[in-house]
Amino acid sequence: MPGLVKFPTFPEGVHTHPLLVIDYDLLKAGDQDEIDRLWKAATELGFWYLKNHGMDDEVNAMFDLGAETFALPPEEKMPYHYQQDSSSFGYKSMGATVIDEKGTKDSTETMDVAQDDVLAYPTKVHHAYPPPVGAAMAATVRPFVRKSMAVSFCVLGVMDGKLGLPRGTLAGLSRPEERSGSTVRLIRAPPANSPAGQTFLSPHTDFGSLTILHNRLGGLQVLVPGGEDWQYVKPLEGHAICNIGDALNIFSGGIMRSNIHRVVPPPKEQAKFERWSLVFFTRPSFDAPMRALTEQSTLIADAAANAPAGKFETGVTAGEWLARRILTTRTNRFKDGDTYKAGFKGTEDLKI
Ligand SMILES: O=C(O)CCC(=O)C(=O)O
Ligand SMILES: [Fe+2]
């Protein structure tokens, strides 16, 4: 974040859900207890804190880059806006997407920098970015992406083992050499001086495999399985918040949980401040089929066999899945609530 900005600590007395804390150093070392705890987190809630990820410096540098980029005047950001009919790579201005079935426009600015563009820079693969991003590519963006990829691939490797998949299976569905929707996202949400009940990000499951989130202020909430009420996830200094997305839910025949979450203004005194998040989304290669890996694991085959027929055979690729969910939120495409709900649907099994 705009590292020098001081903000009030997360308040007492708000309904908060604790997450398991997973130690990345222990995971990398193959510690069996830690692996078991990660498995518990990934299958029960689908969210956990990650400590000792070793990327605090890269995260702070990314927040500074976000501040520099979003501070540009609109005429210097808009040329890098995402294209209406394609992916969300690039800059997104406030109001360019809708956040609910009523067609309410969003109030955040975002910048998505594609992993493919970061790795190939200065060759452009998907999109162009404002000059501060290019200038920071080698020193800031690429180191952040590399460390985030290492975390993701470590988690995917652990999941291979637990799911009974041949080693490297899940990473093989997100090979950096193949084009994918994997991306870094910076999000700036304004201070919440607007009507109560405002939402920054409506209830959703994440579209890809694994999400690694760094935030400073509260506002992220989860709907705990079987529960009715939204509970805050408290940001913890130096801890990332990780969660499972739709692709891992589908690949695993529903064993891993892609849990529904949303973002509302930060609680109490924190609401007066701008809210910044930095997210790294690992998503499968565009060509990867979104279906349960039943041939490679009896555990997955059994899980899929117990689910309603076809539930984990989506018939689409990861690229198509992503495009459907992303394009549904475009303000210029919004038609009506039913079309929105059908188009935005993820793997949630809870009612939105
Ligand atoms: O900003 C946050 O805390 C969460 C963001 C999120 O859920 C998303 O970008 O998918
Ligand atoms: Fe999310």
From TrEMBL:
Keyword Iron part of the UniProt annotation: yes
InterPro entries assigned: DIOX_N, IPNS-like_FE2OG_OXY, IPNS-like_sf, Iron_ascorbate_oxido_reductase, Oxoglu/Fe-dep_dioxygenase_dom
Domain Fe2OG dioxygenase, first and last residues per copy: 180-284
Species of origin: Ganoderma sinense ZZ0214-1
PANTHER family: 2-OXOGLUTARATE (2OG) AND FE(II)-DEPENDENT OXYGENASE SUPERFAMILY PROTEIN-RELATED
Name by which UniProt lists this protein: Fe2OG dioxygenase domain-containing protein
Protein family: Belongs to the iron/ascorbate-dependent oxidoreductase family.
Gene Ontology molecular function: any one: metal ion binding
PROSITE patterns named among the record's database cross-references: FE2OG_OXY
Keywords: Iron, Metal-binding, Oxidoreductase
Top-rank taxon: Eukaryota
